[in-house]
Design brief:
Helix content: over 70%
Radius of gyration: 22 Å
Structural class: mainly alpha
Strand content: under 5%
CATH architecture: Up-down Bundle
CATH topology: Amino acid/polyamine transporter I
Number of domains: 1
Shape: globular
Largest sheet: none
Bound molecules: tryptophan
Amino acid sequence: MKNPGTGLEGPARGMWSSRFMFILAAAGSAIGLGNIWKFPYMAGKYGGGAFVLMYLACIGVIGIPILVAEILIGRHTRKNPVGAFSVLSRKNRFWTAVGFLGVASGFVILSYYSVVGGWTVDYFTKSAAGSYLEADPGRINEIFSRMLANPWEQAVWHTVFMAATMGIVVFGVKEGLERWIEVLMPLLLVLLGILVVYGLVAGDAAGGLGYLFLPDWGKFVTNAAGEYTPRPMLEAMGQAFFTLSLGMGAMITYGSYLGDQENIPGSALMVAILDTAIALLASIAIFTIVFQYDLDPKAAGPGLVFQVLPLAFSQMPGGRFIGTAFFLLLSFAALTSAISLLEVVVAHFIDDRKWARRTATVIMGTVVWVLGLFSAFSYNLLENVTLLEDKEGQGMPILDSVDLIATNYMLPIGGLFIALFAGWFIKQQVRDRQLLEHSNSRTFYRVWLFVTRYFTPVAVAILILFMIDKHLGIAEWIVGGK
Ligand code: TRP
């Protein structure tokens, strides 16, 4: 078969039709609920500016190096993470297990991602119906809480979202993904632009921007009781992994469909910049409104976008239309991310176990769907089940706990090994060929190699140790807390 990515004879595997499509698809995976739903509420919860700065630092020294590493591994092996690690390490058990950890993370993340994706579809219908248009802040909160409290509503929209994800993955990379992303991603950017302008003009620009960009370090490292806590720093790192779709091989899988002559560092930078821009724009749109209405940025949690933006939509001219368009585009952004999560799992069963794409998609999608029902019921039927505790020692619902386990444990551990592998274990010629041949920047390559070898793994390892230590309490003991 002619390989559409390179025009050469190649394996019978789907390929992106151009570098531009790869960037769009990778950005489509990266940009999603992580940017617009999760980043703003985390920035709110952890005190604004300090969190934003730490997050940006993590994107630079952890995110971008690992993003390059993943694409490089994917394009070289042309495989999913399990296949890639097993081939590169000559079937070494340990490294193959790292690949499996990635596939497992895909299952776990998609299960609750689909539930929140369901909320956005639900809000699309609520916006179109004008449900929150005449409402005050109290009533808008109530609409959100009612949605969470209704197990059927949760289950139905989770099912719709998961079915759509499976529907697209069945068709494979090119037909399935490219067509959607091309149109919808740019539209989302335009709409966010409109919301930012609205927020700056009609909202409290000084309050919102000040909260987001002026750091208050004291509040960042302590909890409500004034005790030291590493949690916010860990969350900033976890968010960097989550938002760039790193640590589980999604970008290995997408890189495996990238043509040989394309420039990896350039593409990676582009994706990281787009992704970060969207997260910051969404936060500006949200926090200018938060301060306009004197809401508490810390308190909102996962409901933030669903409670704050409807306030803006109910005030602005054409709000019903803009609100409807916004939740529709957000649903699509979530969908293009969900696709990449399912694609990792499916690619593993196709490449390594020779399943048909359709079989792999239907069976694995169904397993994820069942798993997701636990998250869908975590604010209603199972509301008394808590798995972990939050920064203040409160029990966290299932969805929040599963998110924390996946984002702050599974992804960083996967990412640590991906960085070590790309920095130390891969053959020098492979690195050179993948990163130098079609790129004109030797400097970027040198910096990348240095950071990926010495800096990224150390930083991630230290943070993982802190995370484990949170349960042991050594750091608190050193700092003099307990
Ligand atoms: N990055 C996506 C977002 O921000 C979510 C996502 C898609 C993801 N694929 C991933 C997260 C792989 C971690 C790993 O919404």
